[in-house]
Request: fold
Amino acid sequence: YMGDFARYMHAWLLQRRGRYDVVHANFFMSGLIARDIKERFGIPFVITFHALGAVRQLYQGAEDRFPKERVRYEAAIIHEADAIFAECPQDAKDLMAFYGAPGAKLRLVPCGFDPEQFKPMDRPMARRALGLSPSEPVVLHVGRMVPRKGIDTVIEAMARLRDQHHMRARLVIVGGESDDDDPVRTPEIGRLKAIVQARGLTEEVTFVGRRRPAQLRVFYNAADLFVTTPWYEPFGITPLEAMACATPVIGASVGGIKYTVRHKETGYLVPPSNPAAVALYMAHALSHPIECRALGERGLRWVRAMFTWDAVSDLAVRVYEEVAGAPRKAGTQPAAIPNTLSSKF
Reply:
């Protein structure tokens, strides 16, 4: 569909010539269109990749289903972009290491959250709304149900919490392709349920299926801890949402998580695929409720200062102004756009 996409944008800009100063592309496919627009109309562009093909191939191997040409397309986009939004320091490092992106083009502009949507609420009220015990420790995971999210690590940590630290808690897992825990619609739920059963955790682990963003605030506020342990994560928005609800985070020290979660200040960072470390910090946090609340309060202040959409958009606007103020390459006469763009790259 890329040819159709390109032709549509071409016609749109012909009707509105002179109205736009900057194009902002998100993901590499939109980056191809932005590159084409710059060539034809002389409008500069910035891009946020959100994930990089070379890094996906490194971590996911054969499970990465994108075509191999993706990396070549990304390299071409990086070469032509006027500025590149890196969502976190690791993103910037990956852009330079895998693609040779010039440091002068990179601008740190993270993802954000809506403080009106994600904010603290009374925990007992949140638990009543979800039918959770007011006294049972609650650990929460929210995210896509795919192997790279490392939810099996959290489940294994729950077993260690019970067997090695002699503590019990409720693990609530939110995510999936349906509003219930259907393993047919979401095969990863079936795989994880098998691990839960093998570890004897069927009474401690609850799968609830997917929930809308407006519903997630209640889950975040009901939890004592939010745990996310992917072994690959370009940024990770859920730790921000948890901290925005004053819930401390235990997160894998990868990608954007090691940027957004401040170790021993707003939560704890652990090595990926390390259930022993997760269990250790879970046990510590649940055994020290005053420290746990302090982590949550500092996390709330941290994300409100750095990651609200207002703060993020201010950073973005500065880049737009910088790019729009740069001398433009004169636009060329628009030509017919072929059915496929692949021949151009």
In short: The chain has 14 helices and ten strands. Residues 330-345 have pLDDT under 50 and may be disordered. The radius of gyration is 22 Å. The longest helix spans residues 289-306.
